[in-house]
Design brief:
alpha+beta; five-stranded antiparallel sheet; 8 helices; binds adenosine-5'-triphosphate; six-stranded mixed sheet; 22% helix
């Protein structure tokens, strides 16, 4: 079988430390050429799951398959170096006593020296680092070291790439550039990539699919658009940034009546107490034309967009609107607001 077929399959994996379960029956597949982000808050078990897949943690329960081959299961154990995985972690972990080229050559094993060097230089070139081949890691910036770490992980052409917060040490400008370079190369190579991040924007930017993790379990799995536009619960809705919250009771028409108009609550029975979560970009400011009357409380320019707090005239409720551009309304200005229902979510009322 082609070693690159099959990608990564994690089946019903559980893991505990000192009797405390931190990964709880997780199943997840990453196909060839696919990038899946494991997204969740600190401590939810992301790194542990990745380490189990890599073989850096012993398997306690479940099964891991890589490129169609079982590498960990009850009674089966393949050590990390024989799993065909490339790993990139937050701390680039380059060997300080080896040059950049030697670092990349390190994983290329038994090939002839000239072939190893040529392959290392090829990957360094593709990541814009060929000019640094003869230098030592300590002379490189963080972004450069990260690109070398990527080249080192990719050069053996692993079937599976496991990446743990690989870009979090980089400044914003560098992070976007290195992320895009890495993504292009991973796609070109056709590796099945599982990338751990607690940054929803990073997941949205990179992933084909996002697995949202909480308390050791995957609580939603879908495309970035799915997870953003159809969050499975309020926690996931809020994980992508501050959100507005209204509460209401579903009427016999299956709607919640608010000062911003009726909101559909499909699937909820009449009389159900619900929370309505509204993404800031769903709160539209319409000047003086249509919608509920409100007054601007404050407007904060955030660079490419602005956050505008508005107070509804009808009930003094304050909502935050996210608006494009830098031309923001002034404090005290009268506006009218409407909602975009596509980014408005209805959930059963949370018990306090
Ligand atoms: P972060 O985003 O902060 O890295 P994470 O989602 O990757 O978090 P893990 O590192 O997998 O979470 O940790 C999950 C839980 O397991 C945490 O409560 C952590 O303290 C605990 N834990 C992780 N490694 C060990 C260990 N070797 N021994 C004991 N507890 C551990």
């Amino acid at each position: 079988m082609d070693q690159r077929s099959g990608g990564l399959a994690i089946e019903a994996v559980s893991h505990a430390f000192d009797g405390l379960t931190v990964v709880d029956g997780v199943s997840l597949e990453v196909g060839v050429g696919e990038l899946v982000c494991l997204l969740g808050p600190s401590g939810c078990g992301k790194t542990t799951l990745l380490r189990v897949a890599a073989g850096l943690e012993p398997l306690q329960q479940g099964r891991v398959r890589i490129a169609g081959r079982t590498v960990a299961a009850p009674g089966t154990w393949t050590p990390p170096e024989d799993r065909g995985v490339g790993m990139v972690f937050q701390d680039y972990a380059l060997f300080p006593h080896l040059t950049v080229a030697e670092n990349v050559e390190f994983g290329l094993g038994a090939r002839k020296p000239a072939e190893r060097r040529a392959t290392a230089l090829d990957y360094l070139r593709r990541l814009g680092m060929a000019g640094h081949a003869g230098t030592y890691p300590h002379t490189l910036s963080g972004g450069e070291q990260q690109r070398v770490a990527l080249a080192r992980a990719l050069a053996p052409r692993p079937a599976v790439m496991l990446m743990d917060e690989p870009f979090s040490g980089l400044d914003i400008r560098l992070r976007d550039a290195v992320r895009d370079e890495a993504l292009a190369l991973l796609r070109e190579e056709g590796a099945a990539t599982l990338l751990v991040t607690h940054d929803p924007e990073e997941a949205m930017r990179m992933a084909d699919r996002i697995a949202v993790m909480r308390g050791g379990r995957i609580i939603q799995y879908g495309s970035p658009a799915d997870v953003y536009r159809r969050p499975a619960d309020p926690f996931i809705a809020e994980f992508f940034g501050n959100i507005n919250r209204l509460s209401g009771i579903v009427d016999e028409k299956g709607e919640i009546t608010t000062h911003l108009g009726a909101i559909r609550a499909d699937g909820f029975p009449s009389g159900a107490a619900v929370d309505v979560l509204i993404r800031p970009e769903a709160v539209r400011l319409n000047g003086r034309s249509e919608g509920a009357s409100a007054t601007v409380q404050c407007a904060r320019p955030m660079g490419p967009f602005g956050l505008v707090d508005v107070r509804l005239a009808a009930n003094d409720c304050v909502l935050t609107s996210r608006v494009p551009g830098t031309d923001l309304p002034r404090c005290g200005e009268a506006v009218r607001i409407t909602l975009n229902p596509a980014l408005t979510f209805v959930f059963p009322r949370a018990t306090p």
